[in-house]
Amino acid sequence: MSKARVSSELTNAGISTTRSSSRRSARASGDHMVSVAWTKKPRSLSLANFERKGLDMEYFFEDTKLDTVRNTFAQRRKNLQKDAATIRSAQLPPRPTLPAIEPQTSTAGLLETLYRHTEGIVIGESHFSVSSKKLIIDNLPLLARQNVKTLYMEHLLTDLHQADLDRFFETGQMSKTLLHDLKILDRGHHTDPDKVYNFEQLIIKARQYGLEVRAIDCASSYHLKGIAREESITRQQMMNYFASRTIRRHQDVMGSHKWIALVGNSHSNTYQGVVPGIAELQGGIGLRVIDVAPGKSTGVVPDPGELVTGGITNEQVYIKGDYRVAMEVSRPESARLLSIDQRLFKPGMFLVQQGEGDLQTIVHRARDTWIHRTPVQRNAEGKLYLERVRWPRIHLKPFDDMDALVTALEAMNLTRIA
């Protein structure tokens, strides 16, 4: 199909396109996305990537132009939240046959077998995981032979990253913005310390084997700080809804083809029994891929599921894929000790991180399972305080020292990790 024809088909499908010389950028479902065409340097890009707390509706700043963009973003996010709630009653396609797999089956053999039963495989991961990226990267030659054409990815935003992903796919030149965001993603999730099996390398290697990388998040589904009526399933509903629509439209326009997706393990299959996963929504098969120590692998098994703590109240959340793939990973002890993502493995955990000089930061895992960092500040009287609206009991409250501040956090049922 010619590029002109592709552009026309995308537009007819409701996916806006832009061009810069030979570049083609296809973006899905503009109703929920922040426009990036308002200024020469997109204000939404500035808000999301370079303005501190820019997309957090709980904070105020004086730039009226940025405020206008943020208010538009808030309305589109609200619309997405409302639309996404319908996902619970969505009409789902038939599930593919789940073939019997021997535990000792190689990952290459597993993928070959599954692609005989489905066109889509969804990899569910803990974002720090080495094995999930390793499974894809090491099998890229196989995926290419299997004629898998697209890698769909969480964390990458259609309205902020897709144009840069398209340019990289076509020219091999990665923009500073995309490279910056990938490095932040790897650093924030403490991915492979050897920098072999991480998000950045996954994007680079996928291109080498001809797989197009498509973003399946958007600013409205990803930046949820300050969103009204947030529930424990809000992120899963919004992301899964937007991602499934994006995948479906891309497949409709480009023609049905084999694909693989990399998402968090709460997005791959049905979450808490009410939010259908991307595998269910797209008729695919979900693999929950986990890192295990050398000698501890159980191979490939039907996923028995796992109960994890899903909130500060210690409520249990059930995570389950179609299959569980346990891959042996040897991490240096120092990397395990330094991995905040692993140390704060349950919502409600926090630690005090020492910065330069006497600066300190409270790092905690919230109910949404994300890691949040709140700098400790000092007021004119020399008292310590935190600026965090979501902690109203201590927001802006002065404390004599760190011990008093930590005691207040523990009184909120947060658990300190040394």
TrEMBL record:
UniProt-listed CDD domains: RtxA-like
Highest rank taxon of the organism: Bacteria
Region (Disordered): 1-32
SUPFAM superfamilies, per database record: EreA/ChaN-like
Protein name (database record): Uncharacterized protein
